[in-house]
Amino acid sequence: MDYRKSYKGFVLWMIFFLASCFLTTFFNNVNQNFIFRLLLNICTISIAILTYVIYKTEYVYWYTGITYEEAKEAGKERRKKFAYSHLKVFLWFAVAYFLVSIITYFLNITYIVDLTFVFFGMIGLAVYTIKFKL
Q: CA dihedral defined by 109, 114, 117, 123, rounded to 10 degrees?
């Protein structure tokens, strides 16, 4: 595969993400807590999908701090390993939050717990993944 610079997949992902968020505005007869949790799930799952797209395409330069030239020089094996490290972490978090959101919804726990979980979780993951080196 010829490794070339492209942001087409990222733009398509962004459209998918925004459309998914927008579609929640059409839920009329649904509890606001449900909608809020749905939006948080869309965010966490969409980020996991983005990391999967990066893994499949090896476009690791979509991550902050990596240039296209650095990614190209790293080679296929290193790009895949780097992208897979991110994929594992963000996929695990998306699954974990999905389970948390189901539990908090059915136990009628305030959505603030979900917001706190996702807010600090995403910050924690961003800091945790800094150690991954290309």
A: -160
**Inter-residue contact 87 to 51 (CB < 8 Å):** yes
Rounded-to-integer distance, Cα 18 and Cα 15, Å: 5
For 61, 72, 73, the CA distances from 47, given in Å and listed in that order, are: 16, 23, 26
Q: How confident is the model at residue 1 (pLDDT cuts 50, 70, 90)?
A: low
When the pLDDT of each residue in the chain is averaged and rounded to a whole number, the result is 96
Tokens coding 106: 């059915």
Phi-psi category of 48—alpha, beta or left, where left has phi over 0 and alpha has psi -120 to 50?
alpha
